[in-house]
User: What shape does this take?
Amino acid sequence: MEKKKTSHSAEFFRRLTKGWSSKLGLILFVLIVLVCVIGPFLSPYGINDVDVASINAGPSKEHWFGCDTMGRDLLTRLLVGGRYSLILGLSASLLSALVGSVFGLVAGYQGGAVDSVIMRFMDIWSALPGLLLCILVSAFLGPGFFPTVIALTVGNIPSVARMIRGQVLSERTREYMEASKVINCSGFSILFRHLLPNTIQPIIITTTMAIGGTITMAASLSFIGLGIQPPTPEWGALLADGRRYIMVYPHLIMFPGIIIALTVLAINLLGDGLRNALDPKLRD
Amino acid sequence: MGNQFLEVKDLEVVYTQNKKMVHAVNGVSFSLGKGKTLGIVGETGAGKTTISKAIMRILPDVGARITNGEIYLNGESVLDKSEEEMLDVRGKVVSMIFQDPMTALNPLMTVGDQILEVIELHNDCDKKEAVKLAGDMLEMVGIPRVRYKEYPHQFSGGMKQRVVIAMALACNPELLLADEPTTALDVTVQAQVLGLIRDLREKYDTALILITHDLGVVAQTCDEVAVIYAGQIVEYGTKEDLFDHPTHPYTLGLFGSLPGMAEGEKRLHSIVGLPPDPTNLPEGCKFWPRCPHMTEACKGEIPVKHLSETHYYRCLKDRNPDGTFEDQTKPGGNENG
Amino acid sequence: MYKYVIKRLISMIIIVVCAGIIVFTLMYLAPGDPARLQLGQWATEDVLAAKRHELGIDLPYIVQLGKFLYNTFLRFDFGISWQSSMPVMGELAVRLPRTLMIGIPSMILSVVVGTVLGIFAATHEGRLGDSLTMVLTMVLVSAPDFWVALMFIILFAAKLGWVPAFGIESLKSYILPIICSALPVMAVNARQARSSMLEVIRADYITTARSKGQKSKVIVRRHMFPNALMPIITGVAGGLCKVVAGSPVIESVFSIPGVGAYLLSGVNYRDRPVVCGCVVFFALFTSIVVLLMDLCYAFLDPRIKAQYSK
Assistant: This one.
């Protein structure tokens, strides 16, 4: 049993890394995570260490990415900020996947009135596009880490719920569902032991794909002054910080943006690879 | 030769897929007289559909290539025709019925208009007449004329296949290529559709190539049969030749996997193994990895043996009258490929 | 069909009203005293109370909500901004053209370029052009739009001086915002168009059409294009919604006084009439676009139409 499992995951891993793009995505993502986790310990500077001599300095041997308007080392701030951004992206995506799947599973499985109520609720929920909803919830909950996680989560839930519901509806017509009803499985057991495992793959794929979008969304939020706020070195906050000096010190804008773009790119490539590896319909 | 209606000589088709060469058809030759019926039998992926698409020259533009061979229709070389000349052949001289009626119709066009399309292309008549003709075709395949303006999604699978047949026969083609026309249908509907094809074929004296993996269908419909394996004809003969004296081990295998009515038959025999990977075909006889009578020599050159004027097969071995095989060559006595 | 449209319109109104209620409630519950935010930290309690009375926020929640709903949905009056004391409706009317001035051209740009790129990639599948398009679009999808906007400002406004960096003085100022909001949507459209084109190219009914002897030009026009049109419409609708939804950020980068910037300033000052007005507008806009998209689907695809007629 154990052996079969490992060979299964080995096969999955082989398929995941088959294309050069998903391989690149995986390597890049692991690299970024490692650097953000370990980097700050190796850096000779703290995030709030001020080097008065190199205020606004461009990249140099001492400060690879230069320093900000207060003379703080930009690279160190970026790496620490990466922890915020990555954790924000991961936790908000996971949370929305969790809540969205519960809604979607229940709506799709129960059908009838429950389905209608949940889906109408989702319609209202998504009458406002994601970013606007995030702005509103973030404004309502105020700045800070956890309020921002919630704000980011809220925007993603309806689309996850819809997708899972659709998946459940198509699974429901399959024969194994009949079979499990015939052998008198309880609703709970059908839902969690049969439906969930069969919808888990799209959940994984959308969650992965959502991480990148969520990181961008988080950055947008702090960029427009909501969500995580300076001096916390979240990537969007760093951009918001540097924005005032855009004409004079472009490095303050360039580096954080490149890091965000690279991270999101890595995650998107990985998500693409995951979809190709997991989704049998797209596999040749 | 030369006076046959359709002649295919040494046809070879190669697909390029993910930088790998797929040898779909490897030197297929056959001919067909006017109004005759040929059955092409083989497993999925044996190259049957590719042969028919090559005859119509509708292989995918990207990736598929006819690397060798000649195809003559009414004495004219199909492969030398320009694309424009082919437009007049397709639908008019040769037409095709596709395997899956669910996807063969454009979902956004009414069925009537889809039949109308082919009539307008090949008949010199005004629109009104063409519409009437399209309606006639619908009725002929047993669909009421009033359903002309309906869309494919409003039809069942069997009805859709009737529409496809109506489309294929709308311009009285001289050759009809039916690519597994009943595979996607229920058994009862299968019989109806086959009956329909047979009736219409007799009515218009159309030559028919019936592609199938169902030997029962062949027995009902065909004059001659080609058994195809990995893009090669492994046995060819009249229906009687094939059904009374199946000779190639693969043909025998196919018969073995038919449910027999004979007493004492307890279980079906299946051919062991899977069809070969077309990107990496075995040397020599393509069937040797699965053949119960395989010897080293099978990996070498394989001769074509004629049993009679009409019946030939491609195997090293001779078959004894009792159905067993006698090794003609001593093991290892031949050069290995 | 008419029944369906009417049903959809009714549910659209309900959804927008519900969205209004939710936003109103959120803003009602939001921390911070609007009166204090306006009058500053040193205002006395008397002045504050007078201000609260003036704004009508000393009334019970349910009364305020009732007034809001009545004014918004029956009199189409979004109220008066607490911050600027100007009618919200008038302000929206002034600002909407600016937002659409970015939204519509960038939607058109993203759909046209995206579709063309997608078709190009699909017809060159597996070749260099396809790979390059896919890499390019993946990068564009990944880069945050506001950052791309900032980089464009640095390059085209600061370094090259081709266009103004901020504001709306000339039509030229709209060029960068339009391109920046179009790029990510265009990339998504290109990927979508590619995959749907590939699906259509491989579709069996295309082989059927070829087997009829139809000319390839006609096949593209009559069989391929209509079937590939659905994702393009999704692209138009989705693109418009995305661009308008992204307007707070893009308008903030380019300092464009549009609807998005209005919402943002409303949010920052806890200016309830402004926020509620903008949100109702955005919800209405999105719902109408989605409804139109669904109707286009039904018009194009008899299968969807059949579903609706039931």
In short: Chain B touches chain C through 35 residues (CB under 8 Å).
